[in-house]
Amino acid sequence: MFCRKCEDTLQLSGEAYQVIDNPTAEQKNNVGIVNCLNYLQRFLVPLCERYGSQADPLKSSLSAVQSIQQSAVQPLVQSIIDAVTAIVVTMHQEKFEASLETFKTVPQCSLYMRELQEFLSRVQKQFLSPFEQTEYMKNVAIEIAQEMCRFFILHATLLRPLSNHRRLCLAADCAQVELVMNILCDRLSDVGEPYLMLRSFRPLLVQSAEEIVSTCVQPGFCIPLSLIIQLLISMSPEELPSPHQSVGWSLTRYAEWFENHPSEADRLSFLRGTVESYAQHIIEQEKPQYAITYPLIMKLFEFSCSV
After folding, report:
1. pLDDT band at 50 (very low <50, low <70, confident <90, very high)
2. What is the pTM assigned to this prediction?
3. CA angle 106, 111, 113 (to 5 degrees)
C-alpha cells in the first residue's frame, strides 16, 4: 500500500527532471519520496535476510521500492548526462587562442571545462546531495562520471585541427576532468575503466604519432584502437577527412552512431572505410605520397586483426 501511494504521488513531468534552473517543487517531491523509500528499504532488507523464503512477500515489496526509486532518479540522471554531453561537445567551438609560451608557464582551463565544472558543482549541490547517499546514489554519481569520461575522450579524438598547442590544451583538460569527477565521486578508482582510459589518454597528447602507435600496441593498453585511429586522423592533414566527413554526416550524428555501436569491430570497419576512401582518392589524384599518419593507421588496423 505504501509503495502504491509513493508511485501515485511520484512526479514524472519534464519539470521533475530539468537541471537548468533551481530544483522545482516536483523535484523536491520526488526527493522526499525516494528518501522515504530508502528508509523502508533499510527496514526490509534485514527482515528478508533473516527469514529467507518466509519473507517472499517482503521481497516483492523490496523489489517495488527499488523500481520506484529508479523511476524517480534515472530520468534525472539522463538529463544530467545530456547536459554534460552538450557542454563537452562545445570543445569544437573552443578558441584556443592563448600563446603556446604562455600556456606552458600558466596552465589554463578551457572555457567549456570551466562551464562543466560549474554545472556539475551545482548539480551535485542542488539535485544529487538532497537524496540520501545510499549505495544506489553513489552508483548514480559513478554512472555520470563514466559517461562524462567516455564522451570527453570521444570528442577529444575528433577535435580538428589538432595542433600541438591544442593537444597541450586537451592534456590540461584531462587533468580538469579528473577534478570534475572528484565532485561526483569519493574515489576515482570507482569510475573504473573510463578513468583508466582517461589516465592513459593524457600522455598520448604530448607524443608523436609514431610514439602513440608504439604505446598502444603494448600489452595491457586499455584505450580501444578505434579511438586511437580517430586521434591519428585528427592529427593528419585535412585531405584525410574525419570519419563523419567521409560519409557526409554531422559530428553529432557520428558521435551518436559511435555510442550506439559499442562493437569495436563495427567501429574499426567504419574507420577502415574512411581511410580506404582516402587512399583511393590519393591514387586517383596521382599524388606523390600519403599523409605520414596513413601507414601508422594501417599498422593499427593490422594489429587489430591479430589481437
Report:
1. low
2. 0.90
3. 90
Tell me, yes or no, whether 155 lies in a domain. Answer: no
Of 250, 232, 234, 252, nearest to 242 by C-alpha is 234
Domain presence at residue 182: no
Question: Using an 8 Å Cβ cutoff, are 240 and 287 in contact?
Answer: no
| Rounded-to-integer distance, Cα 11 and Cα 28, Å | 10
In a domain? residue 76: no
Number of domains in the chain: 1
Residues 6+ apart with CB under 8 A from 85: 147, 151
pLDDT digits (tens, 9 = 90+) for 80-109: 999 999 999 999 998 875 545 555 554 567
Can you tell me the distance from the alpha carbon of 200 to that of 203, in angstroms, rounded to the nearest whole number? Answer: 6
The helix/strand/coil state of 249 is coil
Measure CA 273 to chain center: 25
Query: Is residue 260 domain-resident?
Result: yes
Look up the domain containing 272 and give its range: 209-307
Residue 44 one-letter amino acid: L
